[in-house]
């Protein structure tokens, strides 16, 4: 009788462990990350995924004006996922993922809608330095995700929208 009781307890523990693993797996699947979005979409037909390492960036920094060169010197790598040539279905799924994205350890910097386009920007900030900047653009045929790693300050991001000359972030 005692062996039967032990076997019942073991089966119950296995069921609890399996259930917890399934729940955790579902939760992990729903917690979308920037890397996860890139991984999910880079294999789509017509998708372009490019990573620019630090050396070409540093060379580029030598040829810019003072303000631009200073900002570019603080960038270590850039990764771009470009889906603009993909099907509308892919772009719609991408936009849905961006709208749901709440990356852990990132602060939302911008969520803007203008004439059918949406711009999202998140930053991983430590000691007032942006270690990672994630920019997502969707709508009007655009579907792009850009991840910039480095040591940027808010001053480095004094960038304006060329269409309306609106400063998005100013240092």
Describe the fold and architecture.
With 171 residues, the chain is α+β, with helices and mostly antiparallel strands. Helix content is 39%, strand content 35%. The protein contains five helices and eight strands; from the N terminus they run H-H-E-H-H-E-H-E-E-E-E-E-E. It has helices at residues 2-30, 34-41, 54-61, 66-73, 88-100, and strands spanning 48-52, 75-82, 107-114, 117-126, 129-139, 142-152, 159-161, 166-169. It has a six-stranded antiparallel β-sheet with strand order 1-2-6-5-4-3, with helices on both faces. A hairpin with a 2-residue loop joins strand 4 and strand 5. Helix 3 (54-61) runs antiparallel to helix 4. It starts with a helix and ends with a strand. Residues 26-31 and 159-171 have low confidence and may be disordered.
Q: Largest sheet, order of strands side by side?
A: 1-2-6-5-4-3
Low-confidence stretches: 26-31, 159-171
Helix content: 25-40%
Strand coverage percent: 35-45%
Count of individual helical segments: 5
Radius of gyration: 22 Å
Order of helices and strands: HHEHHEHEEEEEE
| DSSP strand tally | 8
Q: Please, what is the average pLDDT? A: 77
Report the span from N to C terminus: 74 Å
* Most strands sheet: 6 strands, antiparallel
- Structural class, judged by helices and strands? alpha+beta
Outline type: extended
């Amino acid at each position: 009788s005692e062996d039967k009781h032990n076997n019942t307890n073991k089966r119950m523990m296995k069921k609890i462990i399996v259930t917890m693993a399934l729940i955790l797996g579902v939760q992990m699947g729903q917690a979308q990350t920037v890397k996860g979005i890139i991984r999910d979409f880079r294999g789509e037909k017509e998708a372009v995924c490019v990573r620019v390492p630090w050396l070409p960036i540093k060379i580029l920094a030598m040829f810019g004006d003072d303000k631009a060169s200073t900002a570019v010197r603080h960038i270590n790598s850039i990764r771009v996922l470009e889906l603009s040539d993909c099907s509308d279905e892919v772009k719609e799924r991408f936009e849905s993922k961006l709208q749901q994205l709440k990356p852990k350890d990132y602060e939302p910097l911008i969520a803007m809608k203008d004439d059918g386009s949406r711009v999202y920007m998140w930053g991983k900030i430590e000691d007032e330095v942006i270690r990672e900047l994630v920019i997502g653009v969707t709508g009007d045929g655009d579907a792009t995700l850009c991840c910039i790693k480095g040591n940027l300050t808010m001053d480095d991001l004094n960038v304006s929208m060329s269409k309306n000359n609106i400063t998005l972030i100013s240092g």
